[in-house]
Design goal:
heterodimer; A: mainly beta; seven-stranded mixed beta sheet; four-stranded antiparallel beta sheet; about 0% helix; B: mainly beta; five-stranded antiparallel beta sheet; 11 strands
Chain lengths: ~120, ~110
């Protein structure tokens, strides 16, 4: 197991274009999270899935953002009509829910998005 | 709203010295407090965590303490080494299930040899 994998590592796009990122969690991890991190700040929670169900969304997740996790395995995060303010590192994390409370979340390397 | 304050923002120590980073949180319902280390160009790496039913936890040179009454927790690194240089983030859960974390703004630790 090589950990949480995110693709692409870097993405440069023009304002107004749509972009999609992929996250492959650690195998057998049933919880998957998306965070956004801007320069000099800590990660900000966007959303999380338990298996294929999206159970919580932050108010940061505007209607231009959509995340899916078909079949409870990999996940995609799509941003439509990108804006310069969307430029950030998008981090994915996964954890294995066993008992309350939640277990440790492990992060991927992130996808750095630059909107020009 | 929920908030995590982290201090200091930068910390420089000599190799072998100890380093302490402190965080305070606002939500008394928070029950899970992880610490992450982030190196340049990489994702955050979990280094230690503590749950609300424990006051202290230690793992080799790293220890974390939690004071639920005062709503603050601290990271202690002893015998620092140059490879400890990185940005460190504290975080606190802000939902009951512990599935959503709010992070501090980070501390840049520099260990000089």
């Amino acid at each position: 197991d090589t950990g949480v994998s995110q693709n692409p590592r870097h993405k440069i796009t023009k304002r107004g274009q749509n972009v999609t990122f992929r996250c492959d969690p650690i195998s057998e991890h049933n919880r998957l999270y998306w965070y956004r991190q801007t320069l000099g700040q800590g990660p900000e929670f966007l959303t999380y899935f338990q298996n294929e169900a999206q159970l919580e969304k932050s108010r940061l997740l505007s209607d231009r953002f959509s995340a899916e996790r078909p079949k409870g395995s990999f996940s995609t995060l799509e941003i439509q009509r990108t804006e310069q303010g969307d430029s950030a590192m998008y981090l994915c994390a996964s954890s294995r829910f066993r008992t309350y409370p939640n277990t440790e979340a492990f992060f991927g390397q992130g996808t750095r998005l630059t909107v020009v | 709203g929920e908030n995590v304050e982290q201090h200091p923002s930068t910390l420089s120590v000599q190799e072998g010295d100890s380093a302490v980073i402190k965080c305070t949180y606002s939500d008394s319902a928070s029950n899970y407090f992880p610490w992450y280390k982030q190196e340049l160009g990489k994702g955050p790496q979990l280094i230690i965590d503590i749950r609300s039913n424990v006051g202290e936890k230690k793992d080799q040179r790293i220890a974390v303490t939690l004071n639920k009454t005062a709503k603050h927790f601290s990271l202690h690194i002893t015998e620092t080494q140059p490879e400890d240089s990185a940005v460190y983030f504290c975080a606190a859960s802000y939902n009951q299930a512990g599935t959503a974390l709010i992070f501090g703004k980070g501390t840049t630790l520099s260990v000089s040899s």
